[in-house]
Amino acid sequence: MARSSLALGIDIGTTTVKVCLISIENGEKCESLSRETKARMPSDLGHLGSEQDVHKICTALQFCLSRLPKESLSRVAKIGISGQMHGCVLWKQDGAWKQNHFGRYEVDAVSCLYTWQDARCTSSFLASLPAPESHLRLSTGQGCPTIFWLSKNRPDVLEKYDRAGTIQDLVVTMLCGLNKPVMSVQNAASWGYFDTISVTWNIEILKDAGFPIDLLPDVVDAGQLAGQTTSCWYGIPQGTPVFAAWGDLQSSVVCSMANETDAVLNISTSAQLSFIKPEDFQPTLSQSSSAIEYFPYFNGRYLAVAASLNGGNVLAVFVRMLQQWTHELGLGVPESKIWERIQDTAIDDANAESEMVIVPTLFGERHLPEDRALVSHIDPLCLTLGKVSRALCKGVVRNLHSMMSKEELVEAGIERIVCNGMALIKNSVLRKEVESHYSLPVEYKNDADAAYGTALATLKFCS
Predict the structure, then answer these.
(1) Are 233 and 76 within 8 A, CB to CB?
(2) pLDDT tens-digit profile of 110-165?
(3) Is beta strand 105-107 parallel, antiparallel or unpaired with respect to 182-184?
(4) Residue 323 CB: number of other CB atoms within 10 A?
(5) Of 156, 158, 130, which Cα lies nearest the Cα of 145?
(6) What is the pLDDT of residues 48-72, one digit of tens each?
(7) Residue 217 and residue 97: Cα distance in Å, rounded?
(8) 16 beta partners
(9) Contact criterion met (CB below 8 Å) for 110 and 174
């Protein structure tokens, strides 16, 4: 009996690459793997820069594929790829990568990845740029502002390259041997200077401002074919269809939302709470200071999204701070032990509640870029590890609630919140705060990661 064909979903996250194989016949998950990229690089801009090593990202991706059964990979009939939105990588078309005789791709003439966390485009710099014709605000970490910054401050970097896209666009271009990258509407919207209604870049605005418009990828609808694999890749047959890459947020929604009365909450590196808008919804071009934005989904639909820059990354900074303190005190405590202890003390300490208030916006927010973290209502009794940990988790959820409240969800007809993301799934204190702040039925999905959602999207939205 012939075995069914499989769909491969790949998600290139901020810290981890995930791959997932599902049955095209019934959508059931067959295999999945993940690996930390450990791709973070030091930046000459200090805390303003957020850069990653593309070679390490590609190595982590191909490591995952090398560990999947060859028999399964030989049955892959379609490939979907998602990844961290907003960021930007540049490459030289001739010489950006090569494939060895084992099928492995090695990248060469490629810049670092400037991630969505990159803060080089300060408020004053963004104010110096022309206003976009888009319903989405302009923010640091987006592709177009980053390229603007490089053109004005590092023109020698831009001179080395002739192509640009998100990290997931680079992988699609590489697999399909495209001469020019193809970008989905979802990723284009996350780059700035893109009108999702007309599905066009703001070419005249960008051209008048001296932007290198030749770097802009071609844009297609989410779910459209980008090309086919040009050769066998870890057993995946040559000629396998590859779809234009989309955003990891949208992929997380695909595998989490069972009904349109569901909202989807993801807390991983960052945090997003979203729900789908009615079919006839169209955003207006007016710029808004609202925390809620409208991101393209599939089939012309939009997601209402509260996208916080502060999620699991804030807790990670807290853990690194504690580890550094223990190191300076002459004690070596591993991060894993600290993660375990901060959760245990926040749960086990019967008096872990306190009046302490932590505003956890270490990384600002796109609608309030100048905001930074604050701690208030500190008293002599609230500085235990359990109380500080509890206050920090509460602050993360409170901040998200201030961006999209329970009342706004109820008004939109939302009846349930479906939760995913490792920072949330692994942290029972965060989960309790979500349940307390939103007071709606909550379901947690351990297997609803973006790679699974990406594979499912190839069945639901790709012809």
Answers:
(1) no
(2) 999 999 999 999 999 999 999 999 999 999 999 999 999 999 999 999 999 999 99
(3) unpaired
(4) 17
(5) 130
(6) 999 999 999 999 999 999 999 999 9
(7) 18
(8) 36
(9) no
